[in-house]
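[job 0412] stage=fold_complex status=start
inputs:
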Amino acid sequence: MTLLKKPYVLFLLLLMVLAVGGDSFAPNDPFQTHIDQRLSPPSVDYLFGTDELGRCMFSRLIYSVRISLGLAASILVICLVTGTCIGMVSGYFGGLIDEILMRATDMIMALPSFIVAMVLIGALGAGLGNMIFVFALTGWTRYARLTRSLVINIRNENYVVTARLTGLQSFYILRKYILPAIVRPLIVLGTLGMGMMILMTSSMSFLGLGITEPTPDWGAMLSNGTTYIRTAAYLAIFPGILICLTVLSFNLLGEELKGEKK
Amino acid sequence: MLTVDHLSKVFDTGPFSRKKTEALKEISFDLNRGEVLGIVGESGSGKTTLANILLRAVTPDSGRVLFDGNDLFGKNRIPERVFRKRVQMITQNFSDALHPDMTVLESMKEVHRLFGKKAYKSITKEEVAGVLETVGLGEELLFRRPVQLSGGQLQRVLIARVVSIRPELIIADEPTSCLDTSVQARIIRLLISLKEAYAFTMIFISHDVALTAAISDRIAVMHNGCMVELGDSAQVVKSPRDAYTRRFVQSAMDGFLPRKDPICLAV
Amino acid sequence: MKKKSVILDVEKLFVCFHTPDGLVRAVRGISFRVEKGEVFAIAGESGAGKSVICRSIVNRLEASASISGKIRFDGHRMLELEENALRKIYAREIAVLPQHATALNPLLTIGEHLSETFRAHFPELKKREIRERSIHLLDTFGFRDPAGIFRTHPYQLSGGMKQRALLSLAYCCDPVLVIADEPTKGLDPVLKDELLETLLEIKATRDTAMVLITHDLKVAHRLADRIGIIYKGRFMEKGPCRQVLEKGAHPYTSMLINAMPENGMAADEDMSLPATAPDEKNGCPFQGRCHRGRGETPHLYEAKNINSNHTVWCKYADS
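[job 0412] stage=fold_complex status=done
writing structure:
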């Protein structure tokens, strides 16, 4: 496994562990406020300092991994599954079904997804569930497009044509012949999409429309930190670095997987 | 069993060209149950298009195909699942006709899905091995994947797969054109013996007249989308009536090498 | 007739591949010579090692292959040449005739294909000269409208014309040797006939030698001067083409001929025989399929000369 030797893969693994183990790794309670120790700089007790309510930033960052990554991942999974299903049906059957599905996709793609998300969140109210719904609503289109073009290529492979003319059922062919062949490029695109999702959800929270207090989230923490950028810059720096590193790692992993495919 | 009536098909050559290719022009013929009909012609003569229409993979522009009196493209067409059980094909591109990640056993088993989940589940390894034996393959091949098989073996697996569905009509589109002559001879012999055993009807498409004559009862010659001659195998090969057929047979027989006794060592 | 010079000399060529399934000995001791202007055919079934021989001659085997033996071409030791030296020889001295018309770049016109090759080997030529040469070349290859063909793209040509375009590309620098790897594979009889006619014409008008790799004995019969029949990487029979194919001596040769559709397709019936049975190191590789040798105790793979240039590797040959 050469992948395991790459630093960004190790970093992502670390994030996974933090996401699963979350609170047990945090040295302090991320929700416990210490009014007497608000805005204290990094120290031995509080590795990354404390915020304006005196909560341990280090613990809050560790705890927020689960929220931020989980949110991005669940949106991504929903997008991938929906997009793949729609793309496979559209590409495999072609004709009228393809036409209808693809025009619908075009329509959604024509909308500025982030603004639509903001409007919807404004209407529906902030919250985890709404965030997932709003981003999944517009996010699946690129996966549907990619899947469709991959399926159209594979559909004309001789072994798929043979299976079709042998009389095997479409659902079986889709599951057994087509899906395994398109899984790899989808994983690559999914990994690359993960970075984008983290950025999108963080931006949403940064604007105050996503995850709300007291739940820690990278975007919200960053936004919070900008208020104190002159007096306690570390409040914005640490979440910022974390977002950067995570997105970078996912992108690097995606590129690596893409290269390996050839 | 099959009546082809004034079948025509036109293909567009491309998005920027107004030219159209007439792949088939008013083709008509009958196919009797139990016979082998050979179709020969050069590349581009419309053989494969005809095969694809008979397999219901391509829709003709005009004309009808009656399969046991039922119009293949009409309103009351035979449902897809029933049709595929009755008509099967053997292709020329056997090298990539099987799922590359499936073993021979899996590929052989999956066709039984045509008969429902229950039938598929009840197929045993021994039964598959038995079918493989009828095409002359040992059971050591069961767990191999397509890349681990030679061309002849692959084509045999495909033939076994088709035969195990017990179709009434098999359309073989140049099944041996990528094989060595000695392997080709074995496959043709195999097809003849399977035909005896399973009593299917066959359409055998090839560009090799001599080969087609060896297996077919009647031969149809195609040229530029038309069927220029249709007659008994012996008659088409020995005394062709059509000028094109004569030329075609002639070029196929050019450079004929006489049969040799297995050993004629003294020179 | 003056004595012709040997231009290609392959001596005791062995090629092995290291694969995950173990050592595959693809070519086991092949020696032959090709004289100037001569067509030498190598015939056999797929898997016999024909293509491997052909790729060894141009030193284009994959890195996993280990080669021993000598290949001398016009004074070059082909197996020891560097990439740069090889590039100078390709097309100029040894040309490879590709099997398939897909070898043409669909984005380039036929003229651009030819000019490319000319420019690579004769950098001093001017554009107009290249054009004139190309058109002259196309003319000699039987194109009715050479100037028109010069401007057309491959997709506008019919199958037979594409084949001829490939031929003109192979012969454009007037090479000493052309290696044709199954030039007629997959062609229907009419196209095959056409291609053969062209090749025969080339053979009559040019002094270019050719190594013809084929599994079609009829093609070899019409085109080749001498033929070598190989089986499992070894020669079974080698000699003048007509003598081998018409009077033939080796049981394998007659088996191949009798398997042809015109001859009733009398294949060896032993279908259960694995295609790659392990055999004794020096034993006759064909014995398992040989209708005479089968069942007897393994015998050696040994050569018998029928006459000075016709050799048979069979125990039963009476020399």
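[job 0412] summary: Chains C and A do not touch (no CB pair under 8 Å).
[job 0412] exit 0
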